Amino acid sequence: MSYPKELFHGDKGEISGNFRKGGSTPDLVIGGRPTHVHYLATGESTGGQYGLYLWDMRGPSSGLGAHFHKTMSESFFVLSGTVGLYDGDRLVNATPGDYLFVPPGGIHAFNNPEGPASMLVLFAPGAPREAYFEELAEIVASGRQLTEEEWTDLYRRHDQYMV
Known about the structure:
By secondary structure, the chain is α+β, with helices and mostly antiparallel strands. It is built from 2 helices and 11 strands, in the order ββββββββββααβ.
């Protein structure tokens, strides 16, 4: 394997880092036992290279059902607590330091089977995933009930294919 094509063509480096202090206010809050989502890096802020979220679950939740993506990989790294990670074959109660990589097309899911838990979620290349999670948060907050066709449309608009 070789290095990818150059993305920076200057002769000297530049000051362009983006620091985010820990403990910042979440960018999105989902549900009654709220999940706090911190957009550490969005697809837009990384020029489409990747997206990175801190997913901070405050209590048990069912999470998302088994699904796959056609355009991106997704990775999960558990920071604290226990996170149920499904790799398409088995559900594992993952604990701090555990990691799951899912390539495009790979079936996966996650949930929070116990109490508070946190994980990093990385997807590459970067995609506008914020819109998907913000739409889900609005649906949960409003109590709106979607038809099967509306769910299918929502998922397809956001490269999510339920299994």
